[in-house]
Amino acid sequence: MIGFLFLAVVLIASAVWVVTAKKPVYSVVGLLAHFAALAAMYVSLSAEFLGVVQIIVYSGAILVLFVFVIALLSSGVDPFSVGPNRLPKAAVPAALLVLGSLALTAYGVFKAPTVGPRVGGAAIAAQAGDANAFGSVADFGKALFTVHLLPFEITALVLMVAVIGVILLAGEKPPLSGSSEQAAKARREMREAIVRAGDE
User: Fold this and answer.
1) Does a structural domain hold residue 82?
2) Is residue 4 assigned to a domain?
3) From CA 16, how far away is CA 31, in angstroms rounded?
4) CA distance linking residue 67 with residue 146, whole number of Å
C-alpha cells in the first residue's frame, strides 16, 4: 500500500509538471518520469509485460518522437548555448537507477502474488502468454485489436498528422512568393543591393 501511494503521488506530480512546465524539454522529462512510475505501477500489479511495453513503446518510441518534434520546432530560433558537460556526473545516478529498476522487476517477478486460476485451493502462477490473466500478452493483444482497435488507429493517425504538421512548420519557407514578375523584381533588387554593398 505504501508503494502504491508513493507511485500515485509521483504520477500526479509528474502529470502536473508536464502541463505546467515553462519549457517543452522539461515537459518531456516530466512525461518520462510519469511513464516510469506507471511502468512500476504495472509491475506492482503483477503485469510485468505491460510494464516492459510501457517502457519500450512509450518511453523509447513515443517520447523520442516528442523530442524530435521539439527539436524541429526549435530549428528556426537562435542556436543553443553550449553548457557544461553533465554526463560524467549523471553516470553514477543513471547506473543506480538502472540497477534499482532491475531489482524492482526481479522482485515483481519472483515475489509478487500470483493471479492465476486456483486448483485445489492453490493458486497457479499465470504465464505472460496465458489467456484470462491480468497483464498477459493474450489479453493485451485481444483488447488492443478488438475492443480498443479504433482508439489505437486514431492515436496513430493523430501522431502521424502531428509529425507532418511539425515538418511543414519547421521546413524552410521559400524566400519569394507570388507571381513570376514579383520574383524577378525581388531578384533584381537583391542583385542591386549586392552591387551597392560591394561598391561601398
Assistant:
1) no
2) yes
3) 10
4) 31
- CB of 10 closer than 8 Å to CB of 78: no
Residues 6+ positions from 186 with CB-CB distance below 8 Å: 175, 176
CA distance 21 to 37: 19
Q: Which residues span the domain enclosing 9?
A: 1-75+98-113+128-171
Q: How many domains does the chain have?
A: 1
Yes or no: say if 79 and 139 are a contact pair by the CB < 8 Å rule.
no
> Could you tell me if residue 84 is inside a domain?
no
At residue 75 the predicted structure's pLDDT band, cuts being 50, 70 and 90, is low
> Which of 35, 75, 29 has the alpha carbon at shortest distance from 57?
35
Place of cell 516510469: 36
* CA-closest candidate to residue 127, choices 56, 55, 54, 48: 48
Q: What is the distance between the alpha carbons of residues 194 and 33, in angstroms, rounded to a whole number?
A: 53
> Which tens digits make up the pLDDT trace of 17-56?
888 888 888 888 888 888 888 888 888 887 777 788 888 8
CB-CB neighbours of 75 under 10 Å: 12
Write the CA distances from 111 to 44, 103, 127, 160, integer angstroms.
10, 11, 15, 41
Domain harbouring 102, CATH code = 1.20.120.1200
Residue 195 forms part of a structural domain: no
